[in-house]
Structure formats: C-alpha cells, structure tokens
Amino acid sequence: DLRFDREAREEALAAALAHGFSIRPVARPTEPGEPASVRLPSGHVELAVALAPSEVAREPAARVRYAAELASNITAIGAVILLFSVAAAALIGRAFGTALASDLVLASQRVASLGTEAASHAADPTAERSRFAVVAELDDSVARLASRFSEFAAAQRRALRARAAAQRVKQLLFASVSHDLKNPLNAILGFAELVREEPLSSAQLESLEMVVSRGRELLRLIETILDAARVEAGQLKLAKERTSASVLVNLALEIARELVAERGSDVLVELPRDLPALSVDRTRGPLALAALIAHAMASARASSGGAVRIRGSGGKDGGGPRIWIEHADGHGQPALLASQLTGRSPSARDRGLVLRLSLARAVIELHGGRVEVGRGQRRESVVTCYWPAASGDS
Q1: pTM of the entire structure?
Q2: Cβ atoms of 36 and 28 closer than 8 Å
C-alpha cells in the first residue's frame, strides 16, 4: 500500500519523473468545485488522481504534472507523412487534370473542325477515344454533328451544281431569245419602215403604224425580260458615258410616249442649266427613266388628265444630281408604287408593269443611284431619281 510504504512511494515518484511526469502528494485529489485537470500557463497539464479507495477517511492523492507536447521525432515523422500525402495528392491531381485537359483539347479540336471542309468527310473511327465519360459523350455528339454536316455539305454541293446548270440554261436562253426572237422582229420592223415610204392609203398607213407600234412594244418587252434575267443572274453590264441630263430626259420621254401610245401627252420639263453631266448608259439609262415617266403619264391620265412635271436639281446640298417626276396618282398611293418598284404586284394583270418598274429601279441602282417615292406639297406623287454625276461634275 503506497500510504504506508514510503520507500515504494519514493521509487514510484522517481520512475515517474524519469518519464517526464512530476508527482506531488496531496491530502485530497481535488477541492469541491475544482476541476480534475488544468492547463498551466507554462503549457503543462496538471492532473489530480486518488491513490486509495474513496471510503478511506483521509484518502491519499497526488497531482501529476506533465508536458502535453509530442516528442520532436514523432512530430518530424508526422510532418514527413503529411508532406508525402500532399505531394502524392498533388501528383494525382496533376495527372488527373492533365488527362482531362488533353481530352478537352481533343474535344474542342473536333468541335472546331466542324466547318464545311471538315464536315464533307465522315468521322474517323480510329480516332483517339476520350478517357472520361463526359468528354466521350461530347465526342459522340460531335461525331453525330459531323455526320449531319456531311449530309448538309453534300446537299450544298448538289445545290451548287444545280445552280450552275440553271445558270448555263439562262445563258442559253439569253442567246436563243436574242437570236430567235429579236432578230426576226427587227427584220419585221425594218420592212415596215420600208413599206411606209411607199404610197399608201390612210387605212393602210394606220394599220402599218399599229404594226410598227406593237412590234416595238414587243421588242421592248423582250429586252425587259432579258435584262431582268441578266440582273437576277448578275450579268447585266453597263457602258456608262458622259451624258447631259437634258439628253437623258428627252430620250426617256420619247420612249415613254411610245410605251403609253401618247405622242402629245402634257409633260412639262424644267431642267436648270447648271445641272451637271451624268454618268449614264445611253441605252439602258433612258429605258429605266422612261418606265418611271410612262407610269406617271398613265397615272395622270387615269386621274384627271393632269400634267406630268419633270424637274431637276444639281444636288448642291450633297445629295447628288436628281430628277423629280411629279404627277397625280390616279392608279394608287405612293406606297403601291414603292412596292411595285421592289417587284411586288397586288394583281396578276400588273405583272408586266411591275417587271418594267422593278427593272428600272435595278438599273438605276446599278448606275450607283437610287429611286425614292413620296408626296409633294400639293399631295401629288413625286418619284425622285438620284443619278451619279460624271467625273469632274460632282
């Protein structure tokens, strides 16, 4: 019993001290309300323990003090293990990230290759497979897209071949129509002019005039159809040259009167002397302007027989040279004319007129100008034609 064996107690205290424990005997392990163990300011821990059963009246006890720190060798081993674990985790994470990045790079390259050229070939079945399920699923989706693109590319190639074939047919149409229709019609008109020089009765002369008028109308219709097809195919070429605005308007006015069969129509031409020269194709420019003037003449005649007024401006305000065609609009509102200029027809009977007007707009735009439709101060319809000025006259 340690209570009575002092020698044994001393040996136990010495052995505890050798292991780093400092033991101090006390009468009781703890006072009432005092904790069994406390941490001292020095960093040590002091623990109170009983050395005998609690039924002993004055139970011997001891306070054991020890350092609550690990030994340096244990700490070093723990640190080494910790560093090794961190390094291993870093290597594993780097290998994982490198593999994932490699798969993502391959997937992004496959996505980027989904162009027209790449899509024209089927996906390579021997290509490297991704190591990750998510990226492999993305690869499968890309492969399906590549297959769809391949089908689209094949369809596009077929469409291009069909378009080229249609273009060749159009070129053959241009050649055949120009030769098979225009040349015989020109011969008929030429012989009609020769017959006009012979002595004819009034009835014969009237019939001959009708033949010539209808022949020229048919010739212009053929030329309109051919030019419209050339514009659509992008093959209409203009031979622009320096032309005065008065010459352009006079040529257009003569053609317009033939189109509406009104030689004596009331048309007022007011062109300023300082109007700059224009850059115009001497064949197609007057035809385009004539279509707009003829529409104005027919509209004015259908309304109340009002006059058509043609004015010009040198474009000193920076808008460029322009020609105004003002008329009463008996055929409809300016919005209707604007839609007809873009090729839209509200009725089948106006298709010839719409074709002529839309071709006129296209030809003026090919010159570098434009056509606008609006109303004037007296609520009359006003068609404004902007024309490019010749070099040195802008």
Answers
A1: 0.55
A2: no
